[in-house]
Amino acid sequence: MSRRQIRKMFRLMAQGQAVQLTSPMASVKKLARLAFTAQQFGYEYADVRQGGGRNNALTMLIVPDPGLQAQSRAAQNWAQYPQAGDGVSLPPVVPDALELLKARINFDLTGKNAEKRMAYAVLGLTVGCAVLAVRTGGSSVAFEVAGILWAVMMVVLGVGLVVTRKRNAKFAVLLRAAGFAPVTEAGGRVRYLPPTAGYGAQPAGPYGPYAPYTGPLPQAPQPQPPYAGPLPQPPQPSYPGPFPQAPQPPHPGTLPQPPQ
Predict the structure, then answer these.
(1) Rounded to whole angstroms, what are the CA distances from 225 to 10, 57, 219, 233?
(2) What is the spatial distance between Cα 5 and Cα 87, in angstroms, rounded to a whole number?
(3) How do 19-23 and 190-193 pair as beta strands?
(4) What is the DSSP pairing of strand 58-64 with strand 181-184?
(5) pLDDT of 118-177, one tens digit each?
(6) Residue 65 and residue 38: Cα distance in Å, rounded?
(7) What are the CA-CA distances from residue 147 to residues 117, 159, 242, 248 (Å)?
């Protein structure tokens, strides 16, 4: 998690709209740390997607959280860390909260939707091996080689499916214990959402199960402009009358007369 990426995230969050963050190295841990930081300043993790083909990057969506608890936490953190936008002066990471975010991101990437993609992969590999056998001559040897290749691929996918199910079961137990609830989206995708997302409610909008929010968010404290008014004047003397005069010497032209 680089300082440059954190500074960019804060600049986008200052607009009060949904923010997309990308991890080119497909690092769930980095995205979880970004999501944790965003949660401390009025935002909430919403979803994650993985690029297809050669682009293996992960793209995470965070959205404004209008909840009273989130707003209070954001105001408190802005007061305590007014320079957080520099990417350095940040609240310390809470390990348990970070693990929950990692579990949510991993489950969103490899949940039931991922199992469905594996089923499509089995179908595609079966068709592909059959086409390969036909194009290489259609002989018994060609079909035998294609069959061996198909069997190896099925074993790999089977092991991957078992491992994925065990990991997802572990994530589900962790999230349920923390108060998250499973929600099935319109396309059949299962996700675990916090109470602030409304659970079963599925309002339409760009934020999925998170209702759109257009209200103000707590912002970083702004520096005060320099004082532009008149400068304070020194206190004036309060003595209203004339200053006392020093005694005058006698006139030099006259001499004192002796007594008569």
Answers:
(1) 23, 43, 17, 21
(2) 8
(3) unpaired
(4) unpaired
(5) 776 777 778 787 777 777 777 777 778 778 888 888 888 778 778 888 888 899 999 999
(6) 10
(7) 22, 18, 119, 131
CA-to-CA separations, 245 to 27, 192, 242, in angstroms, rounded? 88, 92, 9
Quote the tokens at residue 2.
């680089």
Helices (H), 54-185: 68-80, 95-110, 112-135, 140-177
Quickly tell me which residue has 């994650």 as its tokens. Answer: 48
pLDDT at 18: 92
| Listed residue (87, 113, 77, 118) closest to 191, CA to CA | 113
Q: Are 90 and 37 in contact (CB under 8 A)?
A: yes
- The one-letter amino acid at 245: Q
Length of the chain: 260
Residue whose C-alpha is closest to residue 47's, from 188, 198, 208: 208
